[in-house]
Fold:
Amino acid sequence: MKTVRALLYRDIVASVLFVALAFLSLFYFVDFVDALEGVGQRGRTAWHAALAALLELPGHLYELMPIAVLIGSIYTLSRLAQTSEFTILRTGGLGPGRALGLLATLGVAFGVATFVVGDFVAPWSERQGVQLKARFAGGLSIGGAGAWLRERRDGPGDTGQPGRRNVSVNVAATGSGGTLLGVRIFEFDDDGALVVRIAAPQARVGRDGTWTLNDAELTRWPAARADGPPRVEASRHDTLQWASTLDEGVVAAAVLPVSTMSTLELWRYSEHLLHQEQASQSQRIRFWRKALYPLSCLVMMALALPFAYLHARAGGVSLKVFGGIMLGISFVLLNNLTGHVGNLQGWTPWVAAAVPSLVYLLMSMAAFAWLVRYR
Structure:
């Protein structure tokens, strides 16, 4: 059995690595050509374009890993079936259950590798890529209206008035080094009246949630007094410290692309939105999709196994590999479709994320059982 395991694992791993390398080479070339458009602007060179394309490779590897596993496994198993090597292995005692167990173990190993790349390598490289783009672009724009964050507070707040406070924070863009640009903070009382407004061209967020705002303009609307009309208090501060529960993790999740977040960061951000009574369905679906995505490698292994039981006359290796590519594309399409439909229809997040994998796993097991029983 050790010899069989070594044979299967060596060939499958080599094929998967070859397929992944081929895909990554193609994506790197496309990203590099796309990045060349900015060469010569703000001191950007071809080396910076090559570096920007290189930093995007871990994210591509994370997305392509299940498809590479599927194509590489189908190629190896189809080749073994065509040369009758797999038939010899079956005659030597490699039963369906044992073959499924061997490939399941390898699928788990590929899933662990996918998790490591998606939770550690890809987020880091994506952040470096965002900082590189921000450095040469003079900042990173966050859409037309910028990014909005919300915080609810219980207590008197900055004005000393009792009751609950609702705070809304708008960030127009991000600069290099994690600087926030065009920051505006609005604090409302429980009746919806504006009581505090803070505007600052630049700000930084600490790990404890303390915001350091530079050249901040602070405007207060205190409660009306019985002995006179309401007044407005305005002041300017070179540096203003603003305490908040919106720490750097929450802010980064709001202003940076989703690809820069790990599974745990997605969970924390979705919990923050839920606690602040904001729409969190999309983020919760993203969390479950990212959490369950490594298991896709196990599903791809199960999809590839029936190809080993097809007769050599059922098509050449190239035809089976083409079928594997179509299966991989259909899995990606279904995965994206269920995510969007689940967000629109309000499905349970983990159900929307797990449906594609469950559907393809059942399909593969049904095909495997039929081939073993009747072929």
